[in-house]
Automatic annotation (TrEMBL):
Function in brief: Binds and transfers iron-sulfur (Fe-S) clusters to target apoproteins. Can hydrolyze ATP.
Protein name in UniProt: Iron-sulfur cluster carrier protein
Gene3D superfamilies linked: 3.30.2020.30, P-loop containing nucleotide triphosphate hydrolases (3.40.50.300)
Coiled-coil portions: none
Domain of life: Bacteria
Residues that, per the record, bind ATP: G37, K38, G39, G40, V41, G42, K43, S44
Residue ranges with Polar residues bias: 9-20
Family note: Belongs to the Mrp/NBP35 ATP-binding proteins family.
Keywords: ATP-binding, Hydrolase, Iron, Iron-sulfur, Metal-binding, Nucleotide-binding
């Protein structure tokens, strides 16, 4: 593995073992991921200019260049990467400051021409460090500019960070829309709120004759938002000034605030703020010690509503030492015997991944097995540290709701 020459640069500790949680980042109000299904759709340009547009609304904003292997944000903002970042006495990185934005990127550790050759787990560790190991101070929005696709970085984010939601960037052409749809569905599966779709490079206006040309077709992102019932935040033109200003480290929102593109970004930022205002996360990330009930996530009966989601929990309760109760947003409650949950583990040690054959012998699980602690996994699952030492299973909310339904059906059959 190669990251940088340690004789030339001081690389901060990249091995935080615990996931980034809201409690570790009390000064950050919203963490917003900006993603795309494929490269070349202008996602990083959108991230930078969206951050600046939010700042112009009066917000305090930071950016994490989460494309660890292909960082580009420093170049777009004109940030020099020939010197290592400063560190606080307690070992936290001090972000760069440019155009009023606080910025962290792998390019600040490796330099422009020095590649970061990292395996998947190390990518996740650096990403956690760039969020939880930085002295961000108070921020209204922390923008995470993701690499394209649905790989390790996206999964690390979904599992370890309290995301307020994700913005999907696409161009109007069919191939981009198809892959963007796939990326959007991935975030939906791990229950990350889709804040909206941005269609980039919609129309090119000739600077000489004024004629409009839809180089990448027209309106595909808006149509996709209707089909998938997610918000459409806006459409950006294909503007040569956006490219030029980005290449020169002068993002168009900062350099030409009265331009057509800058005005569209302002509109998108306003729409995004409205989406965030409506998006309410009831339960915060938690680490819950079962026996003492310390860190219990809460039981929000007032948030239940008949039209609520069947797969969004609004309460977890230790009803008794052997029973975990889950309250769902639609008002339904499931009561699980904790040993039944241990037997229902679907990790690779308990279920053969390819065939689905059960590897776990119920006779080997003690009748008094119980959780030592229960931890949230992103917005979509929980995981258990069991008293028998097992801790590799992830229980998605979808699976828990289905498990409750199966138990209720068996109960009816036995009556």
């Amino acid at each position: 593995m190669h990251t940088t020459d340690h004789n030339q640069r001081q690389t901060p500790n990249a091995s935080p073992q615990s996931a980034v949680s809201a409690e570790r980042m009390p000064g950050i109000r919203h963490i917003i991921a900006v993603g795309s299904g494929k490269g070349g759709v202008g996602k990083s340009t959108v991230s930078v200019n969206l951050a600046l547009a939010l700042q112009q609304l009066g917000a305090r904003v930071g950016i994490v260049d989460a494309d660890i292997l292909g960082p580009s944000i420093p170049g777009m903002l004109g940030i020099e990467t020939d010197k290592p970042p400063l560190m606080t006495p307690d070992g936290k990185m001090i972000p760069a400051l440019r155009h009023g934005l606080k910025v962290v990127s792998m390019a600040m550790l490796t330099g422009d021409d020095d590649p970061a050759v990292l395996r998947g787990p190390m990518v996740g560790k650096y990403l956690n460090m760039f969020v939880g190991g930085v002295q961000w101070g108070s921020l209204d929005y922390l923008i995470l500019d993701l690499p394209p696709g649905t790989g390790d970085t996206q999964l690390t984010l979904a599992q370890s960070m309290p995301l307020s939601g994700v913005v999907i960037v696409t161009t109007p052409q069919a191939v981009s829309l198809k892959i963007a749809r796939r990326g959007l569905r991935m975030f939906e599966k791990v229950q990350v709120n889709i804040l909206g779709i941005i269609e980039n490079m919609r129309t090119f206006t000739c600077p000489h004759c004024g004629e409009n040309t839809d180089i990448f077709r027209h309106g595909g992102g808006e149509q996709m938002s209707k089909e998938l019932d997610v918000p459409f935040l806006g459409a950006l033109p294909l503007d040569i000034d956006v490219v030029t200003s980005g290449d020169e480290g002068r993002p168009i929102v900062a350099d030409q605030p009265t331009s057509v593109s800058a005005k569209v970004y302002a509109s998108i930022a306003t729409a995004l703020v409205e989406q965030l205002h409506e998006a309410v996360t009831v339960l915060k990330p938690f680490v819950w010690k079962w026996d003492s009930d310390e860190g219990a996530p809460g039981w929000m009966e007032d948030a239940a509503r008949p039209a609520g989601s069947q797969k969004t929990p609004i309460g977890f309760l230790r009803r008794d030492p052997r029973t975990l109760s889950i309250l769902w947003e639609d008002g339904h409650r499931d009561d699980f015997d904790v040993r039944d949950l241990r037997l229902a583990c679907h990790c690779a040690l308990c279920i053969e991944e390819m065939s689905g054959r059960k590897l776990l012998d119920p006779k080997t699980i003690r009748s008094d097995v119980s959780p030592r602690q229960i931890m949230s996994v992103g917005n979509y699952a929980i995981t258990f540290d069991w008293s028998d030492g097992h801790n590799s299973g992830i229980y998605s909310f979808n699976d828990l709701r289905a498990l409750g339904a199966d138990a209720a059906a068996r109960s009816v059959e036995n009556v």
